[in-house]
Amino acid sequence: MTRPIRDLDILISTMQPELHEGVYCFATLNSGNAARIRAADILASIVEAEGLSVVVREEVALQHGLPTDFRAAWITLTVHSDLAAVGLTAAFATALGQAGISCNVVAGNCHDHIFVPHEKAQQAMNVLRGLQQNAAKAV
């Protein structure tokens, strides 16, 4: 495993966004529906007062009758970002926001994962690649 990068300029110039295939949904699991979802089908989760908030493939959400109000595309920044790095989320969220694209971020131990509206996936990829290219010119 590579060493995590903390330098913001290097993070942005080497972030290499990767778009995953498929549609992803956020849902809340509670005592009525949590036991039906296999742990292997949950991409990300966090405990909230309302229940276990999860990210799953759309097929899993539909199979279990979970709401699919937000159909998302999943983009991974493949650079190994340090969890203590400052500014990466602000940089890409600002760039996406200026393009009118909402983003929901999940930080893994090695990478940042961005969920954007599915219909804006390619536009988001273009914005992220542009941010990366501009940063690479400055480094």
TrEMBL record:
This is Uncharacterized protein conserved in bacteria. Residues 73-129 form the CASTOR ACT domain. Residues 5-72 form the DUF2241 domain. Coiled coil: none annotated. It comes from the Bacteria. InterPro entries: ACT-like_dom_sf, CASTOR_ACT_dom, DUF2241. It comes from Bergeriella denitrificans (Neisseria denitrificans).
